[in-house]
Design goal:
The complex is a heterodimer.
Chain A lengths: L1 E5 L2 H8 L4 E7 L2 H4 L5 H17 L5 E7 L5 H5 L2 H6 L2 E4 L3 H10 L5 E3 L1 E11 L2 E6 L15 H4 L12 E2 L2 E2 L2 E5 L1 H11 L34 H4 L1
Parallel strand pairs in A: 2-3, 2-4, 4-5
Antiparallel strand pairs in A: 1-6, 6-7, 8-9, 9-10
Chain B lengths: L14 H7 L4 E6 L7 H11 L5 E4 L11 H10 L4 E6 L5 H13 L4 E5 L20 H13 L17 E6 L9 H11 L3 E6 L3 H14 L6 E6 L5 H10 L7 H10 L13 H27 L4 E6 L8 H7 L11 H7 L1
Parallel strand pairs in B: 1-2, 1-8, 2-3, 3-4, 4-5, 5-6, 6-7, 7-8
Helix pairs in contact in B: 3-4, 6-7, 9-10, 10-11
Classes of the chains: A alpha/beta, B alpha/beta.
Chain lengths: 227, 346
């Protein structure tokens, strides 16, 4: 899932700036699961902004609402009225959610309340770690299900650099060396021969480097749109 | 004649290639370009290395600190009559930039290239920079070997004019983890086209001998020239730092103790009890011992089957190279004419 982290209250305050009517919009999907922008966090952010504006002598009207998915327009239709009334929308969705609101409500000023961090998973309660870099051309079949693009600090494709020590990356002892993990896993599964093949330079066109990415599935498109 | 060789029997014919092909025990040195645009720094260091090494590595923004480019500094070395080994990392350039810089390097007279991944930018003085890593070091070796042997750019386009011909090398980290994979990774680099290998600093000769045993079992030493990395210790503090904090470097306790013993005449005194002269004399004693250790390491490494030379890393202490090379009995350096290989082949 998409993992995000809430911006500081100071930054939220400066983002909503001089607006009087603020609508905080939470999202019920990824950012709810990672406790960054669900209905609970939206209510807290909303109350914090309300209280701090009151303390500063300029009480703002701050309300909050949470939709099931900010990244789909049909869910945004449900809050169209509230959005119209707001001077600013503070989105607690990921970067996709913020842009979905901006795109769907051209007259509305929308600002991000979260920093979208990465695609990953919780490894324990309260800890999330990156797993996928969305390079668009998955090589996990060569590396035993461990991604060196996302998890090696240098995104190396042909094995560990000289900075692998006792299982961690020299960049930070908190980072496990992806290539040590790959080596151990292939070794335990009897597939070390996969590491002996030279992997050619990657085609980064399928990654963000190729420009805006888009998928069109003709089999799923509505007939009316096709014509 | 094997793939890529020219009619004279050499891939490139650089001095380093000639010395190695003639079977001499090669000596390469290293020069760290300055954190400035001052060409005099390079010229002064060149004087200290001239005649004592077969080629000089020029680091590419080592430890991710911005310095004069290795190719810029290499052009100065060529003017000074020394042979550079250009270091090229994958950290700062994508495949377009690497290839175009190498065309320039060849045009300026550079003939040896060492392909590296590159230290991560978070270690250097621009930790907020975006890194590149479009390719890795093995892909880089493969690309530059193909530019030379197949006369193609990475994209497959064929050179219409002069192709860049580099004697291509790569690095090896014999003591980094996963330890068991290291000989195979070296083999991979050689398969990609590395004609020579320069290793990380070796202080633990038995550990390196064990690594070389595995390398020999793979037969890799017959397909490439392996230069063991050595470097003089400057002080016991440096020995302890390398032992404790630098990944992939093993420093035996015995060497740390030897460095400490060198300072024994000044032991038991607090830093403020030592005069300036005392400190200077102690520093000299440390350096003398560091050089002596380095000489002994070279002599021991030379006995290991498959070691074709040494790479002396005395960065910011280039003065040490002369006594090390002389002390190890490796001076004067051999002169191998370009015609030697053709004669041997005929």
């Amino acid at each position: 899932m998409i993992i995000a982290e809430q911006k500081s209250l100071d930054e939220l305050k400066s983002l909503v700036g001089g607006a009087q009517k603020v609508l905080v919009v939470g999202c019920g999907t990824c950012v709810t699961v990672c406790f960054a922008g669900g209905s609970r966090e939206a209510a807290i952010a909303s109350a914090s902004l309300r209280m701090s504006s009151k303390l500063e002598g300029n009480a703002k009207q701050v309300t909050d609402v949470t939709v099931q998915r900010q990244c789909e327009w049909e869910y945004l239709d449900q809050i169209a009225e509230q959005v119209k009334e707001a001077d600013v929308v503070l989105s607690l969705g990921c970067g996709v959610g913020v842009q979905a609101i901006a795109e769907h409500f051209p007259q509305t000023w929308v600002v991000p309340g979260l920093n979208t961090k990465f695609m990953g998973l919780p490894t324990e309660q309260g800890v999330w770690v990156e797993r996928c870099a969305a390079c668009g051309d998955c090589i996990l079949g060569l590396t035993g299900g461990i991604c060196p693009i996302a998890r090696c600090s240098k995104s190396l494709l042909n094995g560990p650099c000289g900075g692998s020590e006792a299982g961690h990356c020299e960049v930070n002892p908190e980072i496990p060396c992806a290539w040590q993990l790959i080596y151990d896993r292939l070794n335990s599964l009897g597939k070390l021969h996969l590491l002996l093949e030279i992997q050619p330079p990657k085609n980064w066109r399928t990654s963000r480097d190729g420009g805006l990415r888009k998928i069109v599935r003709e089999d799923l498109r509505l007939v009316a749109e096709k014509e | 004649m094997t793939v890529g060789e020219q009619s004279n029997g050499y891939l490139v014919g650089s001095n380093l290639e000639r010395v190695l092909r003639a079977g001499h025990f090669a000596v390469t040195g290293e020069l760290g370009p300055p954190q400035s645009a001052d060409s005099e720094v390079i010229r002064k260091k060149a004087v200290l290395l001239r005649g004592y090494v077969d080629a000089v590595n020029l680091t590419d923004n080592q430890t991710a600190i911005v310095r004069m480019s290795s190719i810029g500094a290499g052009a100065i070395l060529v003017q000074e009559g020394l042979e550079p080994v250009i270091q090229m990392t994958c950290r700062d350039r994508n495949r377009l930039a690497i290839q175009s810089d190498l065309l320039g390097a060849y045009a300026l007279g550079m003939r040896n290239l060492l392909c590296l991944s590159g230290d991560h930018q978070t270690f250097g003085n621009h930790p907020t920079a975006k890194n590149v890593f479009d390719m890795d070091s093995i892909q880089l070796v493969q690309m530059v070997a193909a530019m030379r042997d197949k006369k193609v750019f990475q994209c497959g386009d064929v050179f219409k004019g002069q192709e860049p011909r580099f004697f291509v090398g790569a690095a090896a980290a014999p003591f980094a983890d996963p330890l068991d994979f290291r000989p195979y990774r070296l083999a991979k680099k050689v398969k990609a086209g590395a004609s020579f290998i320069q290793t990380q600093l070796v202080y633990d000769v038995p550990a390196f001998a064990r690594f070389m045993e595995k390398v020999r079992a793979l037969g890799v030493h017959r397909e490439t020239y392996i230069l063991a990395g050595v470097g003089p210790l400057k002080s016991p503090a440096m020995a302890r730092y390398m032992k404790k904090d630098v990944p992939g470097i093993l420093v035996p306790d015995e060497l740390v103790e030897r460095m400490e013993r060198a300072g024994r005449p000044w032991a038991g005194k607090k830093p403020d009890e030592l005069s300036k002269e005392d400190k200077k004399a102690r520093s000299e004693a440390y350096k003398k011992e560091g050089i002596q250790i380095c000489i002994e390491l070279i002599q021991a490494l030379r006995q290991i089957d498959g070691v074709a030379g040494v790479h002396i890393m005395a960065i910011e202490w280039e003065e040490a190279v002369k006594p090390i090379v002389e002390g190890a009995g490796l001076y004067p350096r051999p002169v191998v004419p370009l015609s030697a290989q053709a004669e041997a082949a005929s």
